[in-house]
Amino acid sequence: MAQPAQLGFQNAASPIMEELLHFHDHALMIVFLISTLVLYLMVLMLTTSMTYTNTMNAQEMEMVWTILPAVILIMIALPSLRILYLMDEVNNPHLTVKALGHQWYWSYEYTDYENLTFDSYMISTQNLPQGNYRLLEVDHRMVVPMESPIRMLISAEDVLHSWAVPALGIKTDAIPGRLNQTTFTASYPGLFYGQCSEICGSNHSFMPIVIEATTLSGFETWSTMMLS
Questions:
Q1: CB–CB of 167/173 below 8 Å?
Q2: Stretch among 52-56, 147-151, 183-187 having the lowest mean pLDDT
Q3: Peptide bond connecting 65 to the previous residue in cis, omega within 30 degrees of 0
Q4: Distance of alpha carbon 1 from its chain centroid, rounded?
Q5: Where does a domain end: 88, 121, 145?
Q6: The domain containing residue 38 runs over which residues?
Q7: Comparison of pLDDT for 56 and 139, the residue scoring more
Q8: Do residues 199 and 170 lie in contact, with contact meaning Cβ atoms separated by under 8 Å?
Q9: 192 has which bridge partners?
Q10: Are residues 58 and 84 in the same domain?
């Protein structure tokens, strides 16, 4: 989850989020270098006398400011496209979960298990157990096994929603009448918090998402308890 006064992203909890963090650092370094170059040229122009005022063209300079931006765009585009393809790739998921957005809660259906369906509501402040996070904790968490590819099928029943868990690098729109698909793999056990990221009405801020990644044996114990 996010921390107070946090400036950067949350720590990566999935391989896709690790790739996104690396791409962010890569792009940010390019932006920093460009900004430094532009600032240097501005200072140079303001602190030196103008020369060659009668020059009408400069072929070498025009080639530089045409080729250099093209090279920079390629350096940004190639890793970006690679990550986009990785995010869309779904290969042999171990588990499929359908998330359905409502005003204002989420319901989950484990399609590989019969009758494993539940609603997930935010726990109100007055009922919140001590030590839990206000406006982020739910009564039924979505439990998944760690280190297993999970396929998410995401839709909505009424209005637009968005199923987003930053630590896992997921943000997928939930659209009524349409089934969107995404995938993630939790790298380690823990609780990962998210929220609806599409304004969906007056209680938009009160439909959090909590994913609990656990061991395979822990997941099997939980699923058996939920089905019994």
A1: no
A2: 52-56
A3: no
A4: 12
A5: 88
A6: 15-88
A7: 139
A8: no
A9: 211
A10: yes
Burial bucket for residue 177 (CB in 10 Å: 0-12, 13-18, 19+): exposed
Q: Is residue 192 part of a domain?
A: yes
Reduced to 3 DSSP states, what percent helix, strand and coil does the chain have, rounded to the nearest 5? 35, 25, 35
| Integer Cα distance of 228 and 223 in angstroms | 9
Report yes or no on 1 lying in a domain: no
Within 8 A by CB and 6+ apart from 70, the residues are none
With b for 16 or more beta-carbon neighbours within 10 A and e for fewer, the 202-226 pattern comes to eebeebbbbbbbbeeeebeebbeee
Find the mean pLDDT for residues 100-105: 94
Alpha-carbon span 132 to 129, nearest angstrom: 6
Instruction: Give the pTM.
Output: 0.83
pLDDT at 56: 67
Rounded CA separation 222/206 (Å): 26
Q: State the CATH number of the domain containing residue 35.
A: 1.10.287.90
Query: 213 and 184 in contact (C-beta within 8 Å)?
Result: no
The model's pLDDT over 122-171, given as tens digits with 9 standing for 90+, comes to 999 999 988 889 999 999 999 999 999 999 999 999 999 999 999 999 99
Q: Are residues 117 and 43 in the same domain?
A: no
| Domain-located, residue 57 | yes
Three-class secondary structure of residue 123 per DSSP: coil
Whichever domain contains 154, its CATH number is 2.60.40.420
Query: In the block, which residue shows the tokens 């968490």?
Result: 141
For 16-46, the pLDDT digits (tens) are: 999 999 999 999 999 999 999 999 988 888 8
